[in-house]
Amino acid sequence: MKSAATTGETTKPRPSWRQLPRGVIMLGLVSLFMDMSSELVHSLLPALFVGVLGASMLTVGIIEGIAEAVAAITKIFSGALSDYLGRRKALTLTGYGLAAITKPVFPLANSVFWVFMARFIDRIGKGIRGAPRDALIADLAPPAIRGAAYGLRQSLDTVGAFLGPIAAIALMALLADDVRAVLWFALIPAAICVLILAFGVQEPEHPAREGKAKIPLNRRDIALLPPSFWWVVTIGSLFSLARFSEAFLTLRGMELGLPLTWTPAVMVLMSIVFALTAYPAGHLSDRMNRRGLLALGLLTLILADLLLALADGLGLAMAGIAVWGLHMGLSQGLLSTLVADAAPARLRGTAFGLFNLLTGLVLLAASVIAGLAWDQLGSMATFLIGGGFALASLLVLPWAKIHNANAE
Q: Residue 70 needs a FRET pair 20 to 30 A away by CA distance; which of 13, 326, 362, 408 works?
């Protein structure tokens, strides 16, 4: 078969979501329903922590950071295990199932400790499913449409991320701001998610067992990951340092007078922008240099931090939250695509696990720094520090050697 180069063709096909494998679309719907469940809970956690349980901002930062770090640490083991077994669906189902069965703990919790434990276990579930699911998408989607595949999954994930808070707003109004009663409704989309994954996703055949990654993870396997992968890890870590937990966006809205019933609107706004931009950004990344999109993502994060730092009313704060969502749409699916491009196929789960481990540990540090800065210096300092980290990331980006499968 002749290549485009030998035939003189220069125009690449323009894949649409209809050309994506059925399994990728189903995994997107799985993400949609679990994120709807999780964000219904997450959008109300700041109100539960601060308004009901009386936690400090530093406590919120520590809990959120630890929760995300636990997810990241778990991902490295589940990713390596999926490489070793050559099977990714079972681990993905285990992770989503574990997250689903933790949902009743949130409305039943009567102390910060129990909310922390529920968040901790929920994030273990996220960690178990994350790397195998992302590697499974790469197994299902050809390189030419990989950016679109990750972009679609991210978009559907984010549709769930704003449907959850919208449901929270409606239920808070209907149930007279009874946070605990509203949290029970998170069980419904979580159950739907597990059913779709169990019956709607078929895993492709994998190569024979020889040559797979070893368990436990060892230095030999890590050494096989190319320099371009480590550059993606570096850039992703810098992004994480600049992008602390979204709980601080909700807290900023509350600080500026957002009523308790409407606190989930923060995540709704951010997630709508995120959902609308993630798939187009992924599609675009299949057709252009990805470094430029990363730079644009960092520039939008800097702008979001400035708007949130300088806001003296809800209007400017909401503009900053919308720009934050744009940053997420431009960068999150793209980073996953870059990991898939750089990693050897047999080490894809390991690569996603390592990437999520290191970026998650950085996110822990970022969330703790954000909470400490808020308590000691005020909310403006929190967002200005985040913008400073984003600027530092932008300065490093030109030096990064990033592999582009779509350029081959």
A: 326
Compute how many other C-beta atoms are within 10 angstroms of the C-beta atom of residue 8: 7
Question: What DSSP state is assigned to residue 50?
Answer: I
Q: Within a domain: residue 153?
A: yes
Query: Is residue 311 in some structural domain?
Result: yes
CA distances in angstroms from 2 to 12, 145, 325, listed in the order given: 14, 20, 42
Structural tokens at position 182: 């509203």
pTM above 0.90, yes or no: no
Of 264, 253, 121, the C-alpha closest to 182 is 264
Q: What is the pLDDT of residues 28-84, one digit of tens each?
A: 999 999 999 988 887 787 666 665 566 666 676 677 667 766 776 777 778 778 887
Total number of domains in the chain: 1
Tell me the two tokens of residue 308.
């949130």
Contact by Cβ (8 Å): 135, 82: yes
What is the token pair recorded at 74? 């778990």
Predicted confidence (pLDDT) per residue in 300-341, tens digit: 999 999 999 999 888 899 999 999 999 988 888 888 888 888
Which domain range does residue 293 map to? 20-203+223-407
The string of DSSP codes covering 246-311 is THHHHHHHHHTT--GGGTTHHHHHHHHHHHHHHHHHHHHHTTS-HHHHHHHHHHHHHHHHHHHHH-
Q: Is residue 399 part of a domain?
A: yes
Angle, vertex CA 268, rays to CA 319 and CA 177, nearest 5: 115
Buried b (16+ CB within 10 A) or exposed e, 124-156: bbbbbbbbbbbbbbbbbbeeebbbbbbbbbbbb
- Asked if residues 156 and 29 have their Cβ atoms less than 8 Å apart, the reply is yes
Query: Which positions of the chain have pLDDT values less than 50?
Result: 1-14, 208-211, 213
For residue 53, give the CATH number of its domain. Answer: 1.20.1250.20
